[in-house]
Amino acid sequence: MQHVANGLADIASIDSVTWRMSRQFDPDTARLKSIGTTEPTPGLPFIAARGKPIERLRDAVRTGVASLPEATRKAYGLTDVLPLPKEKYEVILLHLTQAEAVHALPALEEI
Confidence band (pLDDT; 50, 70, 90) for 73? Predict the structure, then answer.
């Protein structure tokens, strides 16, 4: 974003969380504007080893988030950690398929 703000780059692709936080804390972003967005997608999933107590792990993360000071939760945009069904992530695979139809991308296993 600093390269775009300083004229060293013409365009950048920024995720919505980074954009929101940068607008809050980085004065350079006042010199930038959003020229397009994609549809919202779920955030990255939490990953645990098979056989681990998922509910206990989720409760621990939720407790950790809830114990943060209000200002910290607000700054990071954290309100809670909620389970999402696997189907909610299918939009990400759809986007990948659409991108692969237009561009030669490395195989998913190589990423």
Answer: very high
